Amino acid sequence: MASSEEHTVLARPEFDKPVKVLIVVSPYYSDIAHGLLTGAKAELSAAGADFEVVEMPGALEIPTAIGISDRRSNFDGYVALGCVIRGETTHYETVCNDSSRALQLLGLQGLCIGNGILTVENKKQAEVRADPEGQNKGGGAAAAALHLIALARKWAHTSKGIGFKPRGEDTLMAGDTDGSKIA
Ligand SMILES: Nc1c(NC[C@H](O)[C@H](O)[C@H](O)CO)[nH]c(=O)[nH]c1=O
Ligand SMILES: CC(=O)[C@@H](O)COP(=O)(O)O
């Protein structure tokens, strides 16, 4: 089956300065969340990254939680962990699509986010994907965040000089109301 085929995994990035990552996890399916979290923590620890963990009720709250955290803290990156299992109604599509799209939009704003929100047909599919000894999607999401952080740091002191300003305390972000922060 295509889903069990091996894929290429990039070498773990190395950092010369501390890295601080926020894991935002929904325990909606707690056993699945536990597996994802175990894999993500192991990957971050192997890279020497520090991390904190916060919980949100469901996958839909995860992007909002990351957006709030990014405006009010100093994390280098984020790992989103959760699981959405198809039910009887169309709500599955809403939770899957909106959480994924919102994470991508945050990413396009410059946030370094690994998406480890499983979107599956049944619990069995989730179990093999969450298992740190199996597909280890939590570890994969943490690795994705680390690669984005490494890229952001690689270009940290580079600019085309055409008015682009890296995100920072003096950069106006969506939701900011302080006019003095306008970049
Ligand atoms: N059905 C699943 C949900 N639904 C809950 C939403 O994420 C959200 O918390 C609620 O609509 C309140 O805003 N969440 C999951 O993480 N997984 C599901 O399968
Ligand atoms: C992904 C969901 O929100 C899903 O679990 C909801 O189930 P249902 O469509 O049966 O209400």
UniProtKB/TrEMBL annotation:
EC nos: 2.5.1.78
Active site per database record: 91 (proton donor)
Catalytic reactions of this protein: (2S)-2-hydroxy-3-oxobutyl phosphate + 5-amino-6-(D-ribitylamino)uracil = 6,7-dimethyl-8-(1-D-ribityl)lumazine + phosphate + 2 H2O + H(+)
Enzyme kind, highest EC tier: transferase
Residues holding 5-amino-6-(D-ribitylamino)uracil: 28, 59-61, 83-85, 115
Superkingdom: Bacteria
Binding site for (2S)-2-hydroxy-3-oxobutyl phosphate: 88-89, 129
Pathway(s) served: Cofactor biosynthesis; riboflavin biosynthesis; riboflavin from 2-hydroxy-3-oxobutyl phosphate and 5-amino-6-(D-ribitylamino)uracil: step 1/2
Keywords, comma-separated and alphabetical: Riboflavin biosynthesis, Transferase
Keyword Transmembrane helix: no
Pfam families: DMRL_synthase
InterPro entries, sorted: LS (IPR034964), LS/RS (IPR002180), LS/RS_sf (IPR036467)
Family recorded in the similarity comment: Belongs to the DMRL synthase family.
HAMAP family: Lumazine_synth (MF_00178)
Its job: Catalyzes the formation of 6,7-dimethyl-8-ribityllumazine by condensation of 5-amino-6-(D-ribitylamino)uracil with 3,4-dihydroxy-2-butanone 4-phosphate. This is the penultimate step in the biosynthesis of riboflavin.
NCBIfam families: lumazine-synth (TIGR00114), PRK00061.2-2 (NF000814)
Protein name, UniProt field: 6,7-dimethyl-8-ribityllumazine synthase
Organism: Sulfitobacter pacificus
